[in-house]
Amino acid sequence: MITLLSLATLHAPNYSMPEVAELEKNNSQVIAFNSNRNVKVAPFSTYQAYTLVAPLTFRGYSQEFKLPEQNNTSFHNFDEVFQKYEPLMKNVINDFNERKNKEGQFLKWAELPSKQLAEDENGVSHLDSICNQAETLFARKNSDGSDRPLVVLGIGGSKHTAEFLLNMNGEGNKGKVYFYSDIDPVSYNNFIRETGHSLKEMNYLVASKSGTTFETADGFKRFEDNLIKEYMQDGLDEASAKLKAQEHFALCTDAKATEKNLRGKIGLQNGVDNNYLKELYIHDDVGGRFSMFDDAGLFVSAYAGVPKDTLIRILSSAAKTSEKLTNPDNIKNNSAAKSAIYNVFSRENGFKPIQQQYFGKIFEGGGENWAKQLYLESLKDFDFMIGKAPDSMHYGTEGQFNPQNRKSYNTVMTIMDPNISDNYKTYTKAIAKTYNETTPLKIEILEVEGDHIKPEAIGEYIQSKHFETVFMGMRRREAEFSLMKKYKKQPDKLPEVVQPSVETYKNKFKQGEYQLNPGN
Predict the structure, then answer these.
(1) Same fold, 61-100+326-497 and 108-310
(2) Which of 104, 172, 459, 498 reaches 20 to 30 Å from 17, CA-CA?
(3) ∠ CA 108-92-496 to the nearest 5 degrees?
């Protein structure tokens, strides 16, 4: 069956389609969905044999909030909760807006999607450059013409963001991309065997802001040195072997060169000084855990075959989400503000820890680790548990549903559109019912397109989670200020975007008996 949507229908609030702009230029076009929910745009004459029918309900990212069935709070529903907590959220959003474009506030991730899409005087965006460089590296194939998989050398946000973005686009675990972040020869040797390729049969992306992060620097040196040795064994002299090895690498790092950082060593322009691809940047004032839409993640997805049009849809949705979530006069439709209110309400009513459950393999690995990093690095407490279901419903059940624990946490379930199958719908509904008997429940729903998350849903969900995490910390402080009955200003730098504790262990590596040597 074909479902046709008229131009008027597309102006309904639930629609956010990139094709709308084109439709507005030509009213004779319509959008059609086939039974697999694939989107097609074509002249109306193509579908003259069909009758215009009621529009298909089409969501990207949506939320549901529920009070516990065994409700001992003073509220009857979440509308009452939002109404009470809403006024202080305006303070949070206004404060955020005053900071977001300032140097040193680490909030420039809010405008990063727009920046990646912005075109220069020649009509070229930075996303175009990222995709072109991915195509260039991908075109460097093996002598038999076979494709080389990409090995991503990065840790923390440089790894988890790229991995999760790849998974949501349906390209994870397909042998196209591998992630390496270890520091020992045993792990290295096992990793090489796991890929099933020699070093010369793979390409590499190094992602590090400074280039001095030990784990990444160690991997870079280890892979490059051994690659040089392989080319020398083929008969190349050392200088030629180095240049040949460099052709396997793309480097994503700080745009500014210094004497100590990686950019200062490799230069600024492709084709100059060496054979690295290097016009890839980790932008200032973004931060690793907020870098899903920075160059490294986009490069990895493009290399794996995610179409540029899909990345445009993701970034466009994220950019629109930033605009929506920074509007202090639209809190009722602000997913990040409502999530922050849900968290503060839960904590104040005795449901302090968060039990986060992702339902589906598409969230496994990168999604779990990204969520953990986003929460723990930003909010700096241990009130966060995470699992990937159905697995977690077995290994975690006795802890989660033990009678003495059932009223001690709040629950967040992240699911795909439950209508993807009867079993998935019934399973997630039953789990939601079980949690909601005793805990506040938030359900995050992501629309599916084919066998991956709909691009608009990816953009809206990820950017919403970025804002949600920062708003959550800010709203907690607003609650503390309110209890004191004396308003205080938020800190000069928001704790949610800085990492003052990371040097606690890193400083050990810089001197004395713990000093490290990359590649050893």
Answers:
(1) yes
(2) 172
(3) 50
- Which strands form 441-446's sheet, in the order they lie side by side? 61-66, 441-446, 410-416, 354-359, 384-389
Closest CA to 168 of 17, 18, 61: 61
Evaluate whether 367 touches 292 at the Cβ level (below 8 Å).
no
**Which neighbouring-strand residues pair with 29?**
43
**In this predicted model, what pLDDT tens digit does every residue of 164-176 receive, in sequence order?**
999 999 998 889 9
* pLDDT tens-digit series, residues 197-207: 999 999 999 99
Residue 485: its pLDDT value, please? 64
Tell me whether residue 121 is exposed, middle or buried, using C-beta atoms within 10 angstroms of its C-beta: 0 to 12, 13 to 18, 19 or more. exposed
Average pLDDT of span 354-373:
94
Q: Which residues of 280-303 are buried (b: 16+ CB within 10 A; e: fewer)?
A: bbbbebbbbbbbbbbbbbbbbbbb
Give phi and psi for 277, each to the nearest 5.
Answer: -85, 125
Give the DSSP letter string of 253-311. Answer: E-SS--SSSHHHHH-SSTTSSSS-EEEEE--TT--GGG-TTSHHHHHHHHHTT--HHHH
DSSP category for residue 77 = S
Banded model confidence at residue 489, pLDDT cuts 50, 70, 90: confident
Instruction: At 64, give phi and psi (nearest 5°).
Output: -130, 140
- Name the residue ranges covered by the structural domains of the chain: 3-47, 61-100+326-497, 108-310
Strands 277-281 and 203-207: unpaired
Of the candidates 56, 63, 224, the one whose C-alpha atom is nearest the C-alpha of residue 151 is 224
Strands 249-253 and 354-359: unpaired
- What is the CATH number assigned to the segment(s) 108-310? 3.40.50.10490
Instruction: Report whether CATH 3.40.50.10490 matches the domain 61-100+326-497.
Output: yes
Please give the DSSP secondary-structure letter assigned to residue 30.
E
Which residues does 334 contact at the CB level (< 8 Å), separation at least 6? 89, 93, 324, 325, 327
Helices and strands (DSSP H and E) totals, the chain: 19, 15
Each residue of 102-159: pLDDT tens digit?
A: 999 999 999 999 999 999 999 999 999 999 999 999 999 999 999 999 999 999 999 9
Largest CA distance in the chain: 79
167-183 in b/e form (b: 16+ CB < 10 A) is bbbbbbeeebbbbbbeb
pLDDT band at 483 (very low <50, low <70, confident <90, very high): confident
How deeply is 355 buried, as exposed, middle or buried, from its count of CB atoms within 10 A (0-12, 13-18, 19+)? buried
Residues 106 and 286: beta-carbon distance below 8 Å = yes
**Positive or negative torsion for Cα 15, 17, 19, 24:** positive
150-153 and 203-207 strand pairing:
parallel
